[in-house]
Amino acid sequence: MSSVFFGLSMEKQTSYNYTIVGAGASGLWLAQALLEQGLLEAKTLCIVESDAHKANDRTWCYWATEPISPVETVSKAWRSILQLNISSHSESLAPYSYYHVRSSDFYSQLKSNLSKCPAIHWHDEEVIEVNDLTTQVQVRTARQTWKSDCIFLSALPPSSSTQADDKLAQQRYLKTPLPAQSNLFLWQSFVGWRVKTAQKVFDESSMSMMDFNVAQGGFTQFMYELPFSSTEALVEMTRFGKEKLSIPEAEEALRHYMNQKKCSYQINEVEIGAIPMTPQFDMYRKSLSQNDRIILIGTLGGAIKPTTGFGFKRMHAYAQALAHALKEDKVLPTMHRPYRFRLYDTLLLRILRDRPDKGKEIFEQLFRTQPIQRILRFLDEETTRMEEIAIFSRLPIRLFLKSLFDHLLGH
């Protein structure tokens, strides 16, 4: 046994059936699913989070035909979309709605639900090390060590949590080689303002998803507008690219965007973040083996679609699938995606990396030539092959063919 475990017998040793590391969206969704499936009636769960006092640190959006329960977490829903760079008229999203969730509401609601379960134990500390033993997993923090039948990781221990080591750590825990294309990496970076205006300038019935009426500056970048009322909205500058959007660049674009509305306004909240756009976290196995006791969830488990950054709904679906498999004592699934959708994402990412000046053209043609419902189904990976042919036939096909040839040749 290595020296890092000397003196282990003197530490408090506890055992839990399940351990979840990280209490963000994926971790809390999973805990909720375990509770709902009745798995915690006779078993115990430990939830470890190193930032238990985080407030409204992000927002999540998703489209669906009905809101994900608990509905109290939804702060606003829109039934139509207005893309001013495409049309001056709004378009119905039906049968979908576009939902907005503030993380503070989400954390509060789910933690309130989970706190009522005596089988759940909360540890406000950081996991230092995870070791896969013969029949259990050993988890170590600065204060204690315990064993668990299985552990769900949405955050890596500090020794392997840097961006450069993410895919190596994933390979270690999954015990499977990653493909060469995992080196393809971009950022979706964003800066958003929640603004309050003195005049009524927003149409609260419609949201804007990708408004390319902003200077591209050699990148692929656009605005989001999510109006909560006629005088309040979240306006957000977003960039797809190898370089992250800087705060001064974003602020300049946001000021210009708001000045076009010819109104006075105040900034009540600022949202800053970056989401990895990469196929490196894609799952190449449909299910885990019987010996896998370390299960990756969240971004590490492939929840984030590489070309959109959306993952909230996928995290919820995966939590439900995991809990169901555990209840039925079945092999655990992964967030495996069909090959063709992984290929589509890879081809688009290569174009955005090598020809960022073409991003605006691609996305505008997509929104101009396709019904919004088909676009949303495509982004949810629910379209048929015939629908996908209809989509790509109206896009700059030469760009995608070149991307395909370069991909196949390993360039």
Question: Overview of this structure, please?
Answer:
It is a single chain. The strands form three sheets. Strands 1, 2, 8, 9, 10, 11 and 17 form a seven-stranded mixed sheet that branches. A seven-stranded mixed sheet has the order 6-5-13-14-15-12-16. A three-stranded antiparallel sheet has the order 3-7-4. It is α/β, with parallel strands linked by helices. The chain has ten helices and 17 strands. The chain has helices at residues 25-36, 103-114, 166-174, 247-259, 312-327, 339-354, 359-369, 372-379, 385-392, 397-409; strands at residues 13-21, 45-48, 59-64, 74-78, 80-81, 91-92, 97-102, 120-123, 127-132, 137-141, 145-153, 186-197, 206-211, 220-229, 232-241, 265-277, 294-296. 29% of the residues lie in helices and 27% in strands.
